[in-house]
Amino acid sequence: MKGTKAIGTDFYTPFQKFWNNGSTTPASFSSFEIVATENNTTVLITPRTAITGHAANATFSVILQQGETYSARDMNSTATSSLAGSIISANKDICVTTYSGALSNSGCLSTMGDQITSSEFIGNDYIIHRSTMNDEKV
What we know:
By secondary structure, the chain is an all-beta fold. It is built from no helices and 9 strands.
């Protein structure tokens, strides 16, 4: 995991917009999970697509106690429905993990997840690794 760089108060979520979630039972989904490091942590969330119980682009708040987790789930399985760019901010330190289940590529299903770093550690230089998958450029 990311260690101390994963702890912060402001986050922007990265998600892919290319592969759909596959058809599974129970249904696959994409989500971000927020965990509080202290009691009485107020978290403001602006999801970029509708999540269970909340509309897209409508900011709402949750209060978490130390160790409690909030899960923001996008149950729409199409890649065009994405949590990419969702904004998460808090009055005390939190950690955020992103997740996409059963991403479908030519019948092959893969799950991805990662703990992300806070916006404090967003840089200006990035490395993009190009690869091939089934002779397609990705």
